[in-house]
Amino acid sequence: MLVGSLAPAVDAAKYAADFGAVIPAFRVEADPRAQEWIRAHATDKPRVVAFDVTRCCGGAKLCSVTVRNQSRSDDRRDFVTALLGDGSRLLVDRRAARRLPSRFGLTVRGLGPFKRLDLDLSGEQWGALLYD
């Protein structure tokens, strides 16, 4: 369940004033393949649901979402903390957190060396995340 990057005792009104809105609690469930992948690629740092926005030459906005390891350049203030069922932490970009459903999953996509963790969302949920 997402508890935010703040202690649970923090007043929700103060949180809303600091960040403009209260981000809802999340329930993140890793499917069996994702659980196996997480065990096989253990790390001492939390993984990150990164939300990137770029502009192409025609001015269109391109949004992408990736699940990756935390990097040195990641500022913790840009993320909220989600807890998976096994107790491991997942940092979710605040821009994505505002658009994600309150319940979503993790799965594994790709083949061979290109296997990676990914969000398990419906088509409508992907649309809301990337295009709203």
SSE order and pairing:
Blueprint lengths: L11 H8 L7 E4 L1 H9 L6 E9 L5 E9 L9 E5 L5 E5 H4 L5 E7 L6 E5 L2 H9 L1
Parallel strand pairs: 1-6, 2-5
Antiparallel strand pairs: 2-3, 4-5, 6-7
Can you describe what's shown?
The protein is 23% helix and 33% strand. The chain has four helices and seven strands. The protein has helices at 12-19, 32-40, 94-97, 123-131; strands at residues 27-30, 47-55, 61-69, 79-83, 89-93, 103-109, 116-120.
Salient structural properties:
about 130 residues; 4-stranded mixed β-sheet; globular; disordered N terminus
Rounded Rg: 15 Å
Mean pLDDT: 81
> Largest sheet, order of strands side by side?
3-2-5-4
By DSSP (H or I, 4+ residues per run), the number of helices equals 4
* Topology pattern, helix = H, strand = E: HEHEEEEHEEH
What's this model, at a glance?
This protein has 4 helices and 7 strands, in the order H-E-H-E-E-E-E-H-E-E-H. By secondary structure, it is of the alpha/beta class.
